[in-house]
Amino acid sequence: MFITQLGIFIFIYMLRSSLLVPFILNFQYVLAQTLSPSDSVAYHYGQTITQEELREHLQIIASDEMEGRETGTEGQKKAAAYIAGYFAGLDLPPIMGDTSYYQTYPIVESEWQEPYVEIEGQRFNFLKDFFSFYRLTESIDTSFNQITFAGYGISSEKYDDYLEVDATGQALLVLSGEPKSPDGDYYVTKSSMPSRFTQNLMASLGTKRTLAGIEDASLVMVVDDNFKQHLNRYALAARRPALELKQTRNEPSLIIISPEMAIALSGKYDLAKLQQRIDKKGKSTSFTRDVSFTVNLGQENRQITSENVLGFVEGSDLKDEIVVVTAHYDHIGKQRNKINNGADDDGSGTVAVLEIAEAFVEARREGHVPRRSMLFMTVSGEEKGLFGSQYYTENPVFPLENTIANLNIDMVGRVDRIHTSSDDYVYIIGSDRLSTELHEINEEANRTFTKLYLDYRYNAEDDPNRFYYRSDHYNFAKNNIPVIFYFNGTHADYHRPSDTIEKINFDLLQKRAQLVYFTAWQLANQDQRIVVDNGEATSDEQGRD
Length: 545
Description:
The chain contains 16 helices and 19 strands.
């Protein structure tokens, strides 16, 4: 009886004197130690990821001083300098030429100079008869003597417009969207669910452009049945200066044209009837017509640069194998003199990477060196089309064959409309697309430590949002590297000046960052590298709408 009373007295004393909090934390640490020695170490350093430090970083990354961090701007470069300075403060070695934390890459900024198309003496004007988002490294002023119709401009396993078309050097005329059978099924998916060629306009156009480039076409003209509607929606985006990642090989230019302009090009060929024929039979048809036309896509181009910022923690006995943790630190800059601070998109992911890096550094300082090396990379250019991650995977600092996984963090500080009644969640995308083992490692890390609800709805193959293709992990997945995309979903402040730090849920941000850390810890320290046991990623869709 006395012991019971004494215990109650001690408990009340600890509660009143605030001693219970460290007692509980220590109890949690002891409990974690019972899992396994490696788990207890992971738990200990995972606690260095704190809400306070996440907030401190985000107050700087998402501040007005960074001016929205648009790629290529002074604000983006200020953010890069802050991240590089933080890596230096952690005593991480600069790995770019042993002097820099930056992987610098070239960009072309272009602005239209009154482009036009003239077809047999009839002039068609920009933002009236056609528009485009896509620029070339150099302006073009080219005359053509013929046009080649290539169906929908699609090449896939179940339907292919290029089987009997020689597109080399040609100007192509293609339909928008994709073929659909009379019974309502799409030929590409063999189901009622449309493929990437329909679900997202910008991504669809980009994919058709890439496919035409593979066929060595010079120009792609997409006939848009909803031309006026799309012109009204995208005129501002089409008019303003744009960025392109400078390529060693030019992709063809792509323009979206009105049905009236298409008639001038196709002449006696009835495109509506050809479309009906394709849709009925599920087989492409094509023609080449002699027609004289000039395409003048005049641009004023400016060469600029942007930077990925790399922090490297060298491993021990398996140091040649690399785990890459990424987030994009760029955002969309200013619009109508209002700063888009991008606290969630993707300030939240950026500061998570910084804190995860610190956790690994602290572990290494105290003798717990990860067996595999860790690359913490914040990339720019994501909002412009995944530029930074594309450049890294095409110009890797460490061989891609030695890169065992990419954990990508893009928007993890907020709650979307779906989870307002229960916010302890995170979306997991791509975890099982290439490696079931990666999926299980993430699941186990969550069961053991963070206990979030892992929502997989956007991981579905038929997800109409196509999120799997829309952030930086996808450039790793295209190279057969297993990935996980951690995401909180979109919200009313997405890509708006109202995406501010005051709306960040730092408790959730901490737990989500810790989940990434615990998964990375296991990847870095287990005996065998994870197995790639699922099919390769094959889609070329990427970028944001």
